[in-house]
């Protein structure tokens, strides 16, 4: 949901010396069309099926930093798969800031509504417990400096690996 996962994920991957992948980008590559077009032709259900297949295909091998679309947690199998195959980070950003960071971008079909802030508030309320269920680390993504979030994550990964 425009929480800053690309910014933070790329920086983290660089620090870890691992490749960075983005599941939405992979879906666009596979279909050859932008995400709003998938929603138009196949509806949200069609997009979610492609998303689940992509998550399945990109996880399990390890050795990479994967950014996922904000709705990936709706599907219990996605939550389980992500949680069991890697360290999952929930980058939590309040709806008002999500709105600020996404309002110039037309690439999010779920936000093509009259009141995108209200939609973000609704989605955040529904999804927050699901992100927490899937995640090993919950981090405040409203931090101003992405590098600070990355430093924090590196310390947390270290702690988890030693536990
Ligand atoms: N820590 C941050 N502080 C301020 N702005 C940020 C931060 N992280 C991301 N942004 C901005 O928010 C927007 C969305 O970030 P991005 O990383 O592309 O999000 P996502 O991949 O989750 O959609 C971009 O304009 C980016 O510059
Ligand atoms: O929140 C969602 O359900 C979605 C978020 C989008 O990704 P971002 O999290 O990058 O916006 C994209 O996967 C799709 O439009 C659906």
Could you characterize what this model shows?
This protein has 163 residues and is mainly alpha-helical. The protein has one domain (5-162): Rossmann fold (3-Layer(aba) Sandwich), CATH 3.40.50.300. The chain contains seven helices and four strands, in the order αβααβαβααβα. A two-stranded parallel ribbon has the order 1-2. It has a two-stranded parallel ribbon with strand order 3-4. The chain is globular. The model has no long low-confidence stretch (mean pLDDT 95). Bound molecules: adenosine-5'-diphosphate and shikimate-3-phosphate (S3P). It is found in: Cytoplasm.
Bulk shape: globular
- The tally of domains stands at 1
**In CATH terms, what is the architecture?**
3-Layer(aba) Sandwich
CATH topology: Rossmann fold
Helix content: 55-70%
Strand composition percent: 5-15%
Report the CATH C-level class.
Answer: Alpha Beta
List low-pLDDT spans: none
Helix-strand pattern: HEHHEHEHHEH
How confident is the prediction overall: mean pLDDT? 95
> What is the distance, rounded to the nearest whole angstrom, between the alpha carbons of the first and last residues?
31 Å
Order of neighbouring strands in the sheet with most strands: 1-2
Question: What is the name of the CATH superfamily?
Answer: P-loop containing nucleotide triphosphate hydrolases
Describe this structure in a few short sentences.
This protein has 163 residues and is mainly α. The protein has helices spanning 5-16, 23-31, 35-58, 76-85, 95-102, 116-134, 146-162, and strands spanning 20-22, 65-67, 89-92, 137-140.
